[in-house]
Design brief:
6-stranded mixed beta sheet; 4-stranded antiparallel beta sheet; 18 strands; 1 helix
Protein backbone atom coordinates (compact mmCIF):
# COMPACT_ATOMS: atom_id res chain seq x y z
CA UNK A 1 0.00 0.00 0.00
CA UNK A 2 2.79 2.44 0.88
CA UNK A 3 4.58 1.67 -2.41
CA UNK A 4 1.41 2.38 -4.36
CA UNK A 5 0.91 5.66 -2.51
CA UNK A 6 4.49 6.67 -3.23
CA UNK A 7 4.03 5.92 -6.93
CA UNK A 8 0.89 8.07 -6.89
CA UNK A 9 2.86 10.90 -5.30
CA UNK A 10 5.59 10.55 -7.93
CA UNK A 11 3.02 10.56 -10.72
CA UNK A 12 1.68 13.86 -9.36
CA UNK A 13 5.23 15.27 -9.20
CA UNK A 14 5.91 14.14 -12.75
CA UNK A 15 2.80 15.90 -14.04
CA UNK A 16 3.76 19.05 -12.15
CA UNK A 17 7.18 18.98 -13.81
CA UNK A 18 5.70 18.54 -17.24
CA UNK A 19 6.35 14.84 -17.79
CA UNK A 20 3.72 13.67 -20.25
CA UNK A 21 2.05 10.32 -20.74
CA UNK A 22 4.20 9.50 -23.80
CA UNK A 23 7.66 9.28 -22.30
CA UNK A 24 10.90 8.91 -24.24
CA UNK A 25 12.28 6.75 -21.43
CA UNK A 26 11.55 5.53 -17.92
CA UNK A 27 13.69 5.78 -14.80
CA UNK A 28 13.68 3.42 -11.81
CA UNK A 29 13.69 3.54 -8.87
CA UNK A 30 11.83 6.76 -8.16
CA UNK A 31 13.51 7.01 -4.76
CA UNK A 32 16.69 5.50 -3.35
CA UNK A 33 18.94 5.86 -0.33
CA UNK A 34 22.70 5.28 -0.28
CA UNK A 35 24.98 4.99 2.73
CA UNK A 36 27.61 7.66 3.49
CA UNK A 37 30.39 5.06 3.37
CA UNK A 38 31.16 1.47 2.39
CA UNK A 39 29.61 -0.64 -0.39
CA UNK A 40 26.19 0.86 0.33
CA UNK A 41 27.42 4.28 -0.82
CA UNK A 42 26.83 3.19 -4.43
CA UNK A 43 23.36 3.42 -5.91
CA UNK A 44 21.93 2.24 -9.23
CA UNK A 45 19.31 3.76 -11.52
CA UNK A 46 17.86 1.89 -14.50
CA UNK A 47 16.93 3.52 -17.78
CA UNK A 48 14.61 1.96 -20.36
CA UNK A 49 14.01 3.56 -23.74
CA UNK A 50 10.38 3.96 -24.81
CA UNK A 51 11.33 5.90 -27.93
CA UNK A 52 11.30 4.50 -31.50
CA UNK A 53 14.62 6.20 -32.19
CA UNK A 54 17.98 6.58 -30.45
CA UNK A 55 17.94 9.06 -27.58
CA UNK A 56 20.65 10.89 -25.64
CA UNK A 57 20.29 11.33 -21.88
CA UNK A 58 22.46 13.22 -19.40
CA UNK A 59 22.49 12.87 -15.63
CA UNK A 60 23.11 15.22 -12.73
CA UNK A 61 22.42 15.64 -9.03
CA UNK A 62 20.80 18.66 -7.38
CA UNK A 63 20.76 19.68 -3.73
CA UNK A 64 17.38 19.76 -2.05
CA UNK A 65 16.12 22.18 0.60
CA UNK A 66 12.69 23.23 1.84
CA UNK A 67 11.40 26.75 2.42
CA UNK A 68 8.89 27.59 5.21
CA UNK A 69 6.09 27.83 2.62
CA UNK A 70 6.78 24.28 1.43
CA UNK A 71 8.59 25.12 -1.81
CA UNK A 72 11.56 23.00 -2.80
CA UNK A 73 14.88 24.77 -3.35
CA UNK A 74 17.51 23.15 -5.60
CA UNK A 75 21.09 23.84 -6.59
CA UNK A 76 24.03 22.04 -8.24
CA UNK A 77 25.49 19.12 -6.24
CA UNK A 78 27.40 17.03 -8.79
CA UNK A 79 30.63 17.56 -6.84
CA UNK A 80 29.26 15.39 -4.00
CA UNK A 81 28.71 12.34 -6.21
CA UNK A 82 30.51 10.26 -8.78
CA UNK A 83 28.07 9.65 -11.65
CA UNK A 84 28.90 7.01 -14.26
CA UNK A 85 28.20 7.62 -17.01
CA UNK A 86 27.26 11.30 -16.93
CA UNK A 87 25.50 10.88 -20.28
CA UNK A 88 24.58 8.06 -22.65
CA UNK A 89 22.93 7.18 -25.94
CA UNK A 90 20.20 4.54 -25.63
CA UNK A 91 19.01 2.45 -28.56
CA UNK A 92 15.25 1.95 -29.17
CA UNK A 93 13.77 -0.36 -26.54
CA UNK A 94 17.14 -0.87 -24.86
CA UNK A 95 17.92 -0.71 -21.15
CA UNK A 96 20.92 0.82 -19.42
CA UNK A 97 22.28 1.37 -15.92
CA UNK A 98 23.62 4.53 -14.27
CA UNK A 99 25.64 4.28 -11.06
CA UNK A 100 26.17 7.00 -8.50
CA UNK A 101 28.51 7.06 -5.51
CA UNK A 102 28.53 9.44 -2.57
CA UNK A 103 31.81 11.35 -2.29
CA UNK A 104 30.84 13.57 0.65
CA UNK A 105 31.63 13.10 4.35
CA UNK A 106 31.71 9.49 5.51
CA UNK A 107 30.30 10.49 8.90
CA UNK A 108 26.94 12.30 8.96
CA UNK A 109 24.46 12.69 11.83
CA UNK A 110 21.43 13.52 9.71
CA UNK A 111 20.15 12.47 6.30
CA UNK A 112 21.27 14.45 3.25
CA UNK A 113 18.60 15.03 0.60
CA UNK A 114 19.08 15.39 -3.16
CA UNK A 115 17.43 15.02 -6.55
CA UNK A 116 18.76 12.73 -9.28
CA UNK A 117 17.89 14.22 -12.67
CA UNK A 118 17.83 12.30 -15.96
CA UNK A 119 17.04 14.48 -18.95
CA UNK A 120 16.91 13.89 -22.66
CA UNK A 121 19.10 16.15 -24.81
CA UNK A 122 19.60 16.47 -28.58
CA UNK A 123 21.75 13.72 -30.07
CA UNK A 124 24.20 16.22 -31.56
CA UNK A 125 25.00 17.79 -28.17
CA UNK A 126 28.71 17.45 -27.46
CA UNK A 127 30.45 17.44 -24.06
CA UNK A 128 31.61 21.04 -24.51
CA UNK A 129 28.27 22.50 -25.60
CA UNK A 130 26.33 22.40 -22.34
CA UNK A 131 25.18 26.02 -22.61
CA UNK A 132 21.96 26.59 -24.44
CA UNK A 133 20.82 22.96 -24.23
CA UNK A 134 17.08 22.63 -24.67
CA UNK A 135 15.63 20.00 -22.35
CA UNK A 136 13.31 17.59 -24.18
CA UNK A 137 12.15 15.18 -21.47
CA UNK A 138 13.22 14.49 -17.90
CA UNK A 139 12.68 12.42 -14.81
CA UNK A 140 13.46 13.65 -11.31
CA UNK A 141 13.99 11.01 -8.63
CA UNK A 142 14.52 11.35 -4.89
CA UNK A 143 18.05 10.58 -3.70
CA UNK A 144 19.03 10.38 -0.04
CA UNK A 145 22.25 9.72 1.84
CA UNK A 146 21.57 8.21 5.24
CA UNK A 147 21.64 5.29 7.63
CA UNK A 148 18.91 2.85 8.77
CA UNK A 149 19.27 4.21 12.31
CA UNK A 150 18.02 7.66 11.28
CA UNK A 151 14.43 8.40 12.33
CA UNK A 152 11.83 11.08 11.60
CA UNK A 153 9.60 12.86 14.10
CA UNK A 154 7.03 15.51 13.25
CA UNK A 155 5.88 18.01 15.86
CA UNK A 156 3.24 20.71 15.50
CA UNK A 157 2.89 24.16 17.03
CA UNK A 158 0.36 26.95 16.64
CA UNK A 159 0.22 30.65 17.40
CA UNK A 160 -2.52 33.22 17.03
CA UNK A 161 -1.85 35.51 14.07
CA UNK A 162 -3.55 37.74 11.50
CA UNK A 163 -3.79 37.05 7.80
CA UNK A 164 -2.85 39.37 4.96
CA UNK A 165 -6.39 40.75 5.05
CA UNK A 166 -6.23 41.35 8.80
CA UNK A 167 -8.46 38.42 9.73
CA UNK A 168 -7.52 36.35 12.82
CA UNK A 169 -6.37 32.74 12.65
CA UNK A 170 -3.67 30.25 13.57
CA UNK A 171 -0.15 30.17 12.18
CA UNK A 172 0.40 26.42 12.24
CA UNK A 173 3.91 25.01 11.91
CA UNK A 174 4.93 21.38 11.40
CA UNK A 175 8.61 20.60 11.95
CA UNK A 176 10.63 17.45 11.40
CA UNK A 177 12.85 17.29 14.48
CA UNK A 178 14.30 13.91 13.43
CA UNK A 179 17.26 12.92 11.30
CA UNK A 180 15.35 11.49 8.33
CA UNK A 181 12.76 12.71 5.81
CA UNK A 182 9.12 11.66 6.11
CA UNK A 183 5.98 12.02 3.99
CA UNK A 184 2.98 12.53 6.28
CA UNK A 185 -0.03 10.64 4.98
CA UNK A 186 -3.48 11.46 6.36
CA UNK A 187 -2.17 14.01 8.91
CA UNK A 188 -4.53 15.42 11.52
CA UNK A 189 -3.73 18.33 13.81
CA UNK A 190 -5.46 19.32 17.03
CA UNK A 191 -5.02 22.81 18.44
CA UNK A 192 -5.66 23.90 22.01
CA UNK A 193 -6.44 20.43 23.32
CA UNK A 194 -9.17 19.90 20.74
CA UNK A 195 -10.30 23.52 20.47
CA UNK A 196 -9.83 23.08 16.72
CA UNK A 197 -9.34 19.83 14.80
CA UNK A 198 -7.82 19.98 11.33
CA UNK A 199 -8.30 17.15 8.82
CA UNK A 200 -6.04 16.64 5.75
CA UNK A 201 -8.41 18.69 3.56
CA UNK A 202 -7.89 21.66 5.91
CA UNK A 203 -4.10 21.51 5.89
CA UNK A 204 -3.09 22.42 2.34
CA UNK A 205 0.65 22.00 1.82
CA UNK A 206 1.01 20.61 5.35
CA UNK A 207 -0.88 17.50 4.21
CA UNK A 208 1.15 16.75 1.08
CA UNK A 209 4.73 17.71 1.92
CA UNK A 210 7.87 15.63 2.18
CA UNK A 211 9.32 16.93 5.45
CA UNK A 212 13.09 16.98 5.20
CA UNK A 213 15.08 16.56 8.45
CA UNK A 214 15.37 19.75 10.48
CA UNK A 215 12.93 21.63 8.23
CA UNK A 216 9.51 23.07 8.96
CA UNK A 217 6.50 24.28 6.97
CA UNK A 218 4.06 26.98 8.11
CA UNK A 219 0.49 27.68 7.06
CA UNK A 220 -2.00 30.35 8.15
CA UNK A 221 -5.47 28.94 8.88
CA UNK A 222 -8.28 31.49 9.45
CA UNK A 223 -10.20 31.17 12.72
CA UNK A 224 -12.34 33.94 14.17
CA UNK A 225 -11.65 33.20 17.87
CA UNK A 226 -7.85 32.91 17.57
CA UNK A 227 -5.99 35.40 19.77
CA UNK A 228 -3.06 37.12 18.01
CA UNK A 229 0.42 36.29 19.44
CA UNK A 230 -1.02 33.68 21.80
CA UNK A 231 0.69 30.28 21.75
CA UNK A 232 -1.52 27.20 21.60
CA UNK A 233 -0.75 23.57 22.28
CA UNK A 234 -0.82 21.51 19.10
CA UNK A 235 -0.47 17.82 18.31
CA UNK A 236 -0.17 15.93 15.01
CA UNK A 237 -1.10 12.36 14.13
CA UNK A 238 0.03 10.91 10.81
CA UNK A 239 1.17 7.83 8.94
CA UNK A 240 4.81 8.18 7.99
CA UNK A 241 6.16 6.99 4.62
CA UNK A 242 9.87 7.16 3.84
Amino acid sequence: MRKLRLRALFALLALTLGVGALSAFTLEPISTTVAPSGPGSIGTFRIKSEDPGRIAIRFRVESRDLSPDGKEINGPADDLFLIYPTRMIVEPGAQAVVKIQWKGPASIDTERCFRFVAEQVPLDTGPSSSSGIKMMFRYIAALYVGRPSFVAELVASAQGATGSDGSPGYLVEVRNTGSRHVIALDPRIKIGGGLMSLAPEDLGILASANYLPGKSIRLFIPKADAVPRKSYDATIDYEGVY
